[in-house]
Amino acid sequence: MVVIQAIRGTRDILPGEVGYWQFVEQTAREILGRAACLEIRTPIFEPTELFERGIGEATDVVGKEMYSFMDKGDRSLTLRPEGTAGVVRSYIGNKLHGVGGLQRLWYVGPMFRYERPQAGRQRQFHQLGLEMLGTAAVRADAEAIALAMDILAAVGLVDIRLEVNSLGTKEDRVSYRAALVDYLTPYKEELDPDSQDRLTRNPLRILDSKVERTQEILQAAPLLGTSLSVESQQRFDRVLSLLTDLGIQYEINPKLVRGLDYYSHTAFEFQSVRFGAVGGGGRYDGLVQELGGPETPAIGWAIGLERLIGLLQELRSAPGSAMDVYIVSRGEKAEAQALGIAQKLRSTGLKVEMDLSGSAFNKQFGRADRSGARVCVILGGE
Ligand code: HAM
Question: Which stretches of the chain drop beneath a pLDDT of 50?
Answer without folding.
Answer: none
